[in-house]
Each structure stands twice: as structure tokens, then as C-alpha cells.
Amino acid sequence: MDNFDILIIGSGMGGLVCADILGREGYKVCILEKNKQIGGSLQTYVRDKVIFDSGVHYLGGLEKGQNLYQIFQYLGIMDKLKLQQQDLDAFDKILIEGDDKVYNFAQGYENFIKQLLVHFPNEEEALRTYCNKIKEICSKFPLYNLRSSDDFNEKSDVLEIDTKAFIDSVTSDPKLQGILAANNALYAGQADKTPLYVHALILNSYIESSWKCVDGGSQIAKLLSKNIKEQGGKIIRDCEVKRIVEENGVVTHVVLENGEKMYAKYFISNMHPVKTFEITDTPLIKNAYRNRLKGLENSTSAFTLNLVFKKDTFKYIKHNYYVGREGYVWTTAEHTEENWPLGYAVFCGASSKSPEYADGLSILSYMRFEEVAAWKDTFNTASKENDRGETYNEFKKRKAEILLDAVERKFPGIRECIKTYYVATPLSYRDYIGNDDGSLYGIVKDYKHSLKTFISPRTKLPNLFLTGQNLNLHGILGASMSGIVTCCAFLGNDEIVAKIRNA
Ligand SMILES: Cc1cc2nc3c(=O)[nH]c(=O)nc-3n(C[C@H](O)[C@H](O)[C@H](O)COP(=O)(O)OP(=O)(O)OC[C@H]3O[C@@H](n4cnc5c(N)ncnc54)[C@H](O)[C@@H]3O)c2cc1C
Fold first, then answer.
1. 4-47+60-72+215-296+441-501 is a CATH 2.60.40.10 domain
2. 60: Cβ contacts below 8 Å, ≥ 6 apart
3. Cystine design at 450: which of 101, 159, 473, 496 (Cβ 3.0–4.6 Å)?
């Protein structure tokens, strides 16, 4: 039987980054992944020979020297990734129902300002104030800038700024206020909740540079898994961890679904922290702490429509669209049965087989878990396939057609290009990621309770650590940084940050 130093539960971005880094540091690691496919939200799926991403539609910060570039460079995957830079003048295009203008979010700060000045010629001062503040906030996060520093005070004064209030303060034009928040589905933005640092860290990353993975984001997981194996590590799929067992104050082993026990010196969980502690039976994790975590809100979920196009009918686009209704930018997730969808995002997958015409397109619109609660007791993954029943199929079809009607209003003729379509709901996200409610981005950050929503990688069990999007920030960049934070906590120093900076 193998002897591992570290068992990592879950092969999401955070788990893979931890395994790769700690493998480089000489530890023998093993990842236990419940799904057939590794990667968590990095997973792709193929329908009608078209590759669809589950949770990586575009990446920021991948220009030489930028933060994600350096992390990927250190991990040895940067030059192996198949990437395509999005339109320099528009990585995102913002469309508003009833307004024919197209508002471009461009790469590079000067270009970002220039493109918005086309429609807001009198707002240069507001746009400069906005951009300067975003840059200032980003400069206060040491790890984001690949600086070693544990000086929390550096960022403490910017944690409690409300995104909506800030945007509304830079301009009195409600149109521009709405446009600057229009891609807030990137972080499931909420008025009077989303801290400005979340908006800033994410937007800055895409303004710096914006990229698509050609043939899907699962290549990131595959490359990291290759590294892990080359370092002597192991990844076991179809291997759900059911219990984390504590004895005499430390975790000794985990129990798998088939009853097998696996032992190690250290354990890292890439599961949602609430789910981690649900399966950790120990008095050392106090109920007050468990309840505090359970009380934190998770971000909303989504309904995703994946279109397969008839050959050569829909031109490939090198940008994304965010489409919304005027006045609803901060309340898009508060739709009712009657007015859904209040907004949606459109992502065109980059395919090496079909560079000129898109072979598929993903359309995401918010959907709350309660909307699919009728089928909550059905579970379906590639490992355990189950039919959720006819009423669920009817629900999916009805919602898909409503969403398509909305999309057709902004993209006339799109229906004609569709060969077939496939749907994912909050239940799909729940079952593939392993959380309770299909939450897209995990624990919601709240500027009013900023410290409560930062989760420490350390737990009361000295050899059990946490990692993943719930710790600091979601996204591939955020989950990578969480992986680094976990490794620093594990190693007891932050020397790897310098290694990444100098890679
Ligand atoms: C629809 C959607 C779109 C997104 N778009 C983008 C985007 O365009 N750009 C971007 O940067 N980010 C995007 N994100 C966010 C990004 O994908 C995530 O923040 C990130 O991948 C999460 O990584 P993680 O480390 O938290 O792991 P997760 O992806 O949450 O993975 C956790 C892993 O743990 C496994 N697991 C859970 N329980 C167990 C168990 N008991 N035993 C064994 N294994 C278990 C799961 O199967 C899973 O593989 C998107 C997310 C979603 C859902």
C-alpha cells in the first residue's frame, strides 16, 4: 500500500495547485477525487463532438509577467497551454435591452477608458477615478502582486468599501453606473454586499489581459495532473471521501465511499468548508464555528444553455457578451418566474477545429437552487448517472426556450443556427462540484463583515488544512491564490511566493 505524506480531498484548481506545489517541495501527495473527471469547475464536457466548459470561460492576468502568468510559469504549464487572447478592444461587450449601443470593455487601462468614452464623452474624469481606484485597491493585496507580506493592515482599509456605492460615487449618470457593473455575474455581485476589492481584483485581471482556453479549460487540470504524477504523486478518481477521522487531536485517516481507509500525515480539503466539517467528526471543531460557517451565504447558481451550432452558421466571436435590462444590474438574481431572465452572459468556446465559425456557445443566466428544489433528491454525475425524471426534462425545456427567446431578441437569427442544445441547472453544478446548492463561486463576500468571510486555511486540527475558492477569492486566479495561501500555511513560510515571482 502507498504511503502518502498528504491526502488532498478534491481535484479542483485549489487542490491541484496544492498538490503540484507540495510535490515540488518533496512531499508525496495523493488526490482523492469523487468524479470521473478531475478539475472541479475546470471540467469540460463534450456534446455532439463540441467541447463545453463548465466553469472557465475566460482567464485574466496571463500576459508575460502578470500574476496568473507567473503562477502558471512556476507550475511549468504556461508554455503548454493553448490560449487565445480576446479582442483587445473588447473582452466583454455589454448590451442593454431596448438600447442598440454596444459598450466595450477593453484590455489595457487607457484603452478601457477610450472605448467607454465613445458613449460617455463627458465622463473621462469619472472613468479615470474609477480605474485609479481599481488599481490602488489591487496594489494593496500582496499575494495578488506576488509580494511576500503578512501585513494585513496593508489591505484592511479597503476591505469595507461597497462596490455599488463606489461606482455610484464616481458618476451621476445612471447609464454609466449600470455599465461599470454590467459584468458583475463574474462575481455574482450584490448591492450593499459585494466588497469593492472583489470587483477590483477580478476586473483588473481581465483589463490587464483577457484570454480563452482553446478547446476548453480542462487542459489546465490535465497539465497539472501530469506534473503531479511526474513528481511521484497520485490522483485517484471515482473516489469520494465520506469521513475525515480524528483521533487524539489529529486527523489519522479518511474513509472512502467503498469503506476503504486511507492514512497520511497531513490532509487538505478542497471541498466547501461546510461540507468538510460535516464529514469531520471531532469535538475539536466547535459547534459555534461550524454554525458560523453554515450561516454564511453561498453565491447563487445558474442555468446554462449550451448550443451546438450547425456547421459554419455562427461566426466565432473573440469576446463575451453580458446582456441585461436597464435598472436591474444589481438585482438580476432576484428574478421571478414571470420576469426571468433579467440578464444573461454569452461565452463562445474557442475551438482549434473550427476557428472561423463557432461550433458551440454557452449562455448563462442566474437560477436559484430553490427553483429546482423539487428534484433535489435526485443525483446525477458521470460516475453515477441517474435520470431526474420527465417533469425535470419539461422544466429544462421550458426554461431553455424562454432564455432562447430572450437571446434571439439581441441576436436575431441565432435560433436558425442551432443544431441542438443541452442544459445544466443548479442541480448539475451541485452534483459535479459537491456543494449543497450549486453555488457558482462559494461563500459570498460581504463588505460589512469582511473578516467573517475570509476563511483560514488552518483548522483546529493541526494536520487538516482547507483550500479552494471559499478561502479568499473565486475564479481560476482566486483559487490558485488560495492554493498558494494553503501551501504557505502548511510550510510555515511564504518562500514559494518569491519562487513564483522569480519563475
Ligand atoms: C459556471 C461557472 C463559470 C465560471 N467561469 C469562470 C471564468 O470564466 N473564469 C474563472 O477564472 N473562473 C470561473 N469560474 C470560477 C472557477 O471555475 C472556480 O472558482 C474554481 O475553479 C474553483 O476551484 P476550487 O479549488 O474551489 O475547486 P472546485 O472547482 O470547487 O472543485 C472541488 C473539487 O472537490 C471535489 N470533491 C467535493 N467533495 C468531494 C469528496 N467528498 N471527495 C472527493 N472529492 C470531492 C469535487 O468533485 C471537485 O472536483 C466559474 C465557475 C462556474 C461554476
1. no
2. 66, 68, 202, 204, 205, 206, 207, 208, 209, 210, 211, 477
3. 159
